[in-house]
Amino acid sequence: MTISKKDIEKIAYLARINISQGEAEKLEKKLDGIMSLIDKMQSIDTDNIQPMSHALDISQPLRKDEVTDYDLRKKILPLAPETEESLFIVPQVIE
């Protein structure tokens, strides 16, 4: 698949982007290179290839599941201007 300068101009118009003729020519060359790379990748037979999550056979080290934040309610509630039954009372913002 190739992308013509006319296609680039149409996309630029739809995106409301001003592109000069020189920029359009550069984009056409770059996009043609990208599209040819995609065509090469599409032609590769991947039927017998196992899917993998990463190119290297590595695993993420996990940390221990420990509680790091403790209940700070007793320290924070006295700082609030108004509370009720361990809840913060705030002014109504939606009418």
Describe, in plain words, how this protein is organized in 3D.
The structure is a single chain. With 95 residues, the protein is mainly alpha-helical. The protein has a domain at 5-42: Orthogonal Bundle (Histone, subunit A). The chain is 38% helix and 4% strand. It has 3 helices and 2 strands, in the order αααββ. The chain has helices spanning 5-14, 21-42, 73-76, and strands at residues 83-84, 87-88. A two-stranded antiparallel ribbon has the order 1-2. A hairpin with a 2-residue loop joins strand 1 and strand 2 (87-88). It starts with a helix and ends in a 7-residue tail after the last strand. The model has no long low-confidence stretch (mean pLDDT 88).
Concise overview:
This protein is mainly alpha-helical and 95 residues long. Helices cover 38% and strands 4% of the residues. Strands 1-2 form a two-stranded antiparallel sheet.
Furnish the topology, listing elements before pairings:
Blueprint: H1 5-14, H2 21-42, H3 73-76, E1 83-84, E2 87-88
Antiparallel strand pairs: 1-2
Largest sheet: 2 strands, antiparallel
The count of β-strands is 2
Number of helices: 3
Q: Based on helices, strands and strand pairing, what is the structural class?
A: mainly alpha
Which CATH architecture of one domain? Orthogonal Bundle
Order of helices and strands: HHHEE
Across the major sheet, the strand order is 1-2
Q: What is the end-to-end distance?
A: 56 Å
How confident overall, as mean pLDDT?
A: 88
Query: What radius of gyration results from the CA coordinates?
Result: 29 Å
Find the CATH topology of one domain.
Histone, subunit A
Helix residue percentage: 25-40%
Shape: flat
